[in-house]
Design a protein that fits this description.
heterodimer; A: 333 residues; alpha+beta; Butyryl-Coa Dehydrogenase, subunit A, domain 1; Butyryl-CoA Dehydrogenase, subunit A, domain 3; 2 domains; 8 strands; 9% strand; B: alpha+beta; 3 domains; 13 helices; 47% helix; globular
């Protein structure tokens, strides 16, 4: 443990984690990794920090933290666009450690599939292994990067993952990997949105048209107010997901992912609208952020998928009112 | 700047209020059809307010010496949630309990507190808010109703409009001009407690687009106000009204206005097409939004408990909340309209019709959407 963070509260270890990301996961470094560099400095920095073992039991040498302790770290991973599945590797290592399995090196993806392929898995091109939920078990398999198809989006690192020979098999957590991955995506999207809001407000205060900053125009102010509302809503929904002690409930995951996915579309749209043409250029960092929102919105179930899941739960939840149902969704301390 | 939006939990002692409160409410609303319950804080029921007062559910945050319960804003959150989530007709006491009592407690004299607060806590005396005038809506500082000094007291002339339930209430707390003119804007405004039975006060109910008469216009013609009708400082009306609006915007009210319709429609879907994918997704969408907005509203309440004034945060939750409330009738109308050959109960049809018609008011009352977004933009550093 580099910082011995088992004894700290979440805010205390957030700061060194953010500092690490600020140093090693800047937009320039992110672009380099997207262009094919191996990102060794970033990955080894994170690995050496000990954060990858945050969720592992203390008996296995981890920090023994719960999901709710690392929610802010996951938001930070989004905010800094970190192009490795860091949160996913934390979860995977905890699952492997629980079963006393040997720990593979490198980044580990999470993926869920009902057939033999998981489509468009974010960060597939930088992961060494994938932990796959087949619906009946969890299997660990190696990722052969050279065999993966090229990403369909410019600058992207996502690819389809096909079921291959498993290295080992684990028991499946009750709610499955998709619920956990959805919550991680939600938290990362909330982190991206918060950063986009800062960037967009700053730009509106700088960019001058009609003789004054465009942020002085009521039309722009109203748009940015909506963006702030959606950003806060994403943050709150994400925390309903990451507030769980252990594995997120299906209802909490559905709430987190459906609300963040739906709002991500609006946040990205307003960010682009306010930035104007400069935001369409590759050179401007805006596209790094909005591209992730679009990707994570649909990854592991878009809002439509998770709305159906939650609707099924509500319809099965017989007698009580929607208010009582909604009240029971967030995890209790 | 939005760091205060974190997951909060209600204290156990406040959660424990739900059981007995729910029983009291259930007994009172058992015979109310959904379309009556959908009126909720536009439903005036003196007996319910008296029963709530007797049982100690009003004046929750007020000191005991005025008849209050000395509980936190969390207790009020629980009681508001229980009442509104089933559409209890709370209009009689709602404004008095939510904002007039707070205003009197914070800005009133000891004599004013003793005169009004115990009756509010018992659910016996009812207040309305005199802000809007024919020429003053969002531009509240332009009010023209005027109180002029007359002997020891004041003489009031002018008109208020869109005043909710002035025809049933005992008192109005009005924002009026006491010095200067329209050009002085926020300067020279004061607040008065006006006895609506006083000579010279005329209240005319206004029929709304649903056929109800939930609001009224109120005329003041040489109304003699005693000196003690002034509340707070002369000339400090604007600051007091701003504080009052923060109370109005902070509660969980702004999430539940369409909840009776939502539950009535969910019961319909469960009965006639529980496997319908589009309806199931819509139910999930609305429940996810509800859970998130409720968590946000609770975070704002936590700020109140901690003694902060969450003006920007409350504006943000209110704008999102009213948008959510307004989306419900539109989405449900499309769902039902997408199945034109399906039988819909008259109760659901009437509930949908009422909520559809009244929903535009959700983002007007207590500050329009555009005003709220202006407040948020200021919070973002844009103005």
């Amino acid at each position: 443990m580099a910082w011995g963070f088992a004894d700290m509260d979440d805010i205390t270890f957030l700061e060194p984690f953010e500092r690490l990301l600020k140093d090693l996961s800047s937009p320039r470094q992110v672009r380099a990794i997207e262009a094919g560099e191996d990102g060794h400095a970033l990955w080894s920095g994170i690995a050496e920090s000990g954060f990858l073992d945050a969720l592992m039991p203390e008996a296995s040498g981890g920090a023994g933290l719960a999901l709710r302790d690392v929610g802010l770290l996951v938001e930070a991973l989004g905010r800094y666009l970190t192009p490795f599945p860091v949160a996913e590797t934390m979860v995977a290592r905890a699952l492997l450690a629980q079963e006393g399995m040997a720990m593979p090196d490198g980044a580990i993806l999470l993926a869920a599939m009902s057939g033999d392929v998981a489509r468009n898995v974010p960060l597939a091109l930088v992961a060494r292994h994938a932990l796959i939920d087949t619906g009946s078990a969890i299997v660990l398999q190696e990722i052969d990067r050279d065999a993966l198809p090229r990403p369909s989006v410019h600058g992207g690192l996502a690819a389809d993952i096909r079921l291959a020979d498993p290295i080992l098999t684990l028991p499946r957590p009750l709610q499955g990997l998709r619920a956990m991955q959805a919550v991680l995506d939600a938290a990362k999207m909330a982190g991206v949105a918060a950063r986009l809001l800062e960037m967009t407000v700053a730009y509106a205060n700088e960019r001058v048209q009609f003789g004054k900053p465009i942020g002085k125009q009521q039309a722009i102010q109203q748009q940015l107010a909506i963006m702030a509302e959606k950003t806060v809503m994403m943050r709150m929904a994400a925390r309903i997901g990451t507030g769980c002690a252990e594995w997120p409930s299906l209802a909490a995951a559905a709430t987190a992912k459906s609300v963040t996915s739906a709002a991500a579309v609006d946040v990205a749209a307003i960010a682009h609208a306010v930035h104007g043409a400069i935001g369409i250029s590759e050179e401007h960092d805006l596209q790094l952020y909005t591209r992730r929102l679009q990707e994570w919105r649909v990854a592991n179930g878009s809002e439509g998928y998770w709305q159906r899941q939650l609707g099924d739960i509500r319809l099965a939840h017989d007698a009580s009112s929607s208010a009582a149902f909604a009240r029971a969704i967030p995890p209790t301390a | 700047m939005f760091d205060k939006f974190t997951l909060r939990a209600l204290p156990d002692e406040d959660e424990a209020m739900r059981g007995p409160l729910r029983a009291l409410i259930a007994a009172r609303i058992a015979n109310l059809p959904a379309d009556r319950r959908a009126r909720s804080w536009l439903g005036f029921d003196r007996d319910l307010s008296l029963a709530l007062g007797r049982a100690g559910y009003l004046g929750l945050t007020l000191p005991r010496r005025y008849g209050g319960q000395e509980k936190s804003a969390y207790a009020r959150f629980v009681v508001a949630e229980e009442l509104l989530s089933v559409g209890a007709p709370v209009a009689a006491h709602w404004i008095a309990d939510r904002q007039s009592a707070q205003l009197i407690l914070h800005f009133g004299t000891e004599a004013q507190r003793e005169a009004y607060l115990p009756g509010i806590c018992r659910g016996e005396i009812y207040f309305c808010i005199g802000m809007s005038e024919p020429g003053s809506g969002s531009d509240l500082a332009s009010v023209r109703t005027r109180a002029e000094r007359s002997g020891d007291g004041w003489r009031l002339n002018g008109q208020k409009i869109w005043t909710t339930f002035a025809q049933h209430d005992d008192y109005m707390i009005a924002l009026v001009r006491t010095s200067g003119g329209a050009a002085d804007r926020q300067q020279g405004l004061s607040q008065f407690i006006i006895d609506l039975k006083a000579p010279g006060v005329t209240v005319r109910p206004i029929v709304d687009l649903t056929g109800d008469a939930h609001f009224a216009e109120v005329f003041f013609e040489d109304v003699a106000l005693p000196a003690e009708a002034l509340i707070g400082q002369e000339g400090a009306g604007w600051a007091q009204v701003t504080a009052e609006l923060a109370f109005e915007r902070s509660g969980p009210e702004r999430i539940f206005s369409s909840i009776v319709l939502l539950d009535t429609w969910i019961a319909h879907v469960r009965e006639v097409r529980a496997k319908d994918v589009a309806a199931t997704a819509l139910i999930g969408r609305l429940c996810a939004e509800l859970a998130t907005l409720r968590a946000m509203s609770l975070a704002v309440t936590a700020q109140l408990v901690e003694g902060e004034s969450p003006v920007i945060e409350a504006s943000l939750v209110k704008d999102l909340g009213t948008g959510f409330e307004q989306s419900i009738p539109a989405l449900i109308a499309d769902d039902l309209g997408s199945h034109p050959d399906e039988t819909v109960s008259p109760e659901l049809a009437r509930t949908l019709a009422f909520v559809t018609q009244i929903a535009p008011s959700y983002s007007l009352r207590g500050g329009t959407r555009e005003i709220l977004r202006g407040i948020i933009a200021r919070g973002l550093g844009l103005r």
